[in-house]
Input
Amino acid sequence: MENYHNQRRILVTGGAGFLGSHLCEKLMKNGNDVICLDNFFTGTKKNIDALLSRHNFELVRHDLVEPILLEVDEIYNLACPASPVHYQYNPVKTIKTNVMGTINMLGLAKRVNATILQASTSEIYGDPKEHPQKENYWGNVNPIGIRSCYDEGKRCAETLCFDYNRQNDVSIKVVRIFNTYGPRMHPNDGRVISNFIVRALAGDDITVYGDGNQTRSFCYVDDMIEGFIRMMAKSRDFTGPVNLGNPGEYTILQLAEEIIRLTASRSKIIFEPLPQDDPLRRKPDISLAERELDWRPTIDLETGLKKTIDYFRRLLK
Ligand code: NAD
Ligand code: UDP
Output
């Protein structure tokens, strides 16, 4: 049945996290009814503070590993810790969230005939042998390493999406997210941009793992959210997987130097051992997103870093 106001009812799992909170905000701005589901493992009510009193927002404290019955038109399945420090804290739980959580959401989508967008990751490419990474590359993933709970969990989640699509005709949208940053990243989540900014602002040493020549491509959060929304709006036959990310590629050493420059910090760069299975290079080929979604990032690294630095300055005051 159509809902009373004829608004779309949209479920965002992991809605109190970094990306989820920005997504809830944008979906509400666009006039939708949003249900934010979160167990607050890495997310926080603070991220959604401004939304809590709004009539088109509901918060459900729930663990995605357990089934839930809701009436919704669309599901954005973002629940899962994203930083290596967080997803390695309880690896079995990370796998459960990715596998059982995604089964629960696909089952819900099937029951209520909702479209589901799955937040996959560039990590499914592992330590890639092809560069830049295109969607048809199958990846180079260690199945038994310390990153596997996340990489293989997300790979299995993609498999589940495509099997529910083939077997049960569930409408799916799979986006492969490359490193994304911006305000509301957790200050202690161990990800490189938050780590470097927090340390630079405090004047502490900046820890580069390995020799710092490994590369990443960093996308500002607003660009990423726009990509999600375009993907959801796209016709049912475009399932993805589609890469979303900023193709600008930087070494971690360049990133450290840029953050020191932008914060005018006196921090020194120190070197620590590279964690196991840390990918050497990563850069998305986004030609599919450009063609199908007419999407490309609009915010360059310097602009995005300045916004993120402002956020952390206010947070840590
Ligand atoms: P985040 O850790 O800030 O957000 C994840 C949210 O999911 C948190 O609010 C957390 O409390 C919630 N959550 C975790 N396990 C849950 C469970 N079992 N039940 C209910 N809620 C649960 O991370 P993020 O950066 O916002 O990432 C969001 C999604 O995007 C994740 O699925 C992540 O894998 C994916 N992703 C993010 C990036 C990135 O660079 N930010 C890159 C690739 C993929
Ligand atoms: N990294 C680093 N110092 C830090 C945190 C991360 O040198 O304090 C490196 C890390 O080894 C990796 C890159 O930065 O090569 C990106 O790490 P992050 O955890 O942000 O993302 P991911 O490895 O999942 O892409």
Remarks:
- The radius of gyration is 19 Å.
- The chain has a mean pLDDT of 96.
